[in-house]
Design brief:
Pfam families: WD40. By secondary structure, the protein is mainly β. The chain is built from four helices and 31 strands. The mean pLDDT is 89.
Length: 447
Amino acid sequence: SPDPRETICMSREEFMHKMTETVGWGPAEEYGELFDKVDVAREGFINWDKLTSFILLSLYEKDARTKATVVPQWKDLEFLPGKHKDTIQKILFLKSSGHYLTISKEGLLGIWGENLKLQETLPITSDATKLKHLWVTCLVSLENVNKIAVAFTSKEICFYDLLSKEFPCQYKLQGLKGTPICMDYWCDPLDANESILSFGDITGKVQAIVFTAALISLFERPASACDDKEATMTINWAELLSGCHRCCHILGHKLHRGDWVRQVTYNASLDAIISSTTSNTNTVVLAWREKSKKHFKITSFDIAQGVHAFDYHSRLNLIATAGINNKVCLWNPYVVSKPVGVLWGHSASVIAVQFFAERKQLFSFSRDKVLRLWDTQHQLSIQRIACSFPKSQDFRCLFHFDEAHGRLFISFNNQLALLAMESEANNRVRSHQKPVTCILYNSLLKQ
């Protein structure tokens, strides 16, 4: 008998004969076609490794196609009781604690449990004496250092400690030239010291603070500072620009030229900062970091009437844009001349887009409160939901999909609504409780 460790190769005729003889059903021609699909290099023979690799890849692709066309089932839209008196500016999920955070324009921070019960509210302000004239514009989580950063209309960004119940302000970054209205934070999963806080302002500037020792300190404490660790450390933007703080440096560009920067994000797979405006020139700008990491190479998309928002899917290598012209466009980040796809179906301007990453699907939400889910491969709308919100001419909507928990949050001014996905686990047929390690075929029973 042959050595089981020896690789056995078969020609096309041998494979057709053996498969017909072993399996016991199906025409020999079909096994010949299977051989041709496996033998892509046209070598005239295949082995067991090539056959199993082809079958596994085919099953994986079939599973991916099935997932892409699965339409989620949703529970009824639910309004979550909250205490925000003004427009909700941000919704985010803290992986470390399992809490959700919301913040509204007047500076009220809501802390929600994983069960979506409001646990606590805290007033977050830069200066209590300015409360009437001060608005919060954005919030981001710095999870690697257990902090949050809050941007204000006073041209400040304040950093608060999440490990303390009082949420004390540890750093106050002042002296920004324009009011920051959008922010994003990224940290390196392999080195938590490396992180980037990017933000855009009302003057069209996109700027980023690149931290290189975040776990030790975000900013350097001056020698003259008091020893009280609870005291707020004030940093002037000019100090950062001059390079006084060795633990971080600044990057930026002005390509948006006076247009409000509506969204900004740093993407590690592209090593670029993506930003957008509602202008029809330089609508979406990609600032690619050069090898020195100290300068940008800039490319941009011009989109008629501008966009409200965008999202990027790294595996699909697609940027989706929420067009004011009612269209959702799909862009290859390396091709600026035209989109690779256009999704038609909305009757009003699109105000939000977000990828359903695992399924390679895309959510879009329009100003007439219609939610659509798209199959990005076939560029087809596979689901449409008209959301029931109070009628209002002037409103602000936020859209946040928590993919890990199957929860879709939509804010309407100061109200927070939830669309929760029905559990799909009960609908799946599983033959085993644990991973399958061996399969045998019974030719007599054909099973």
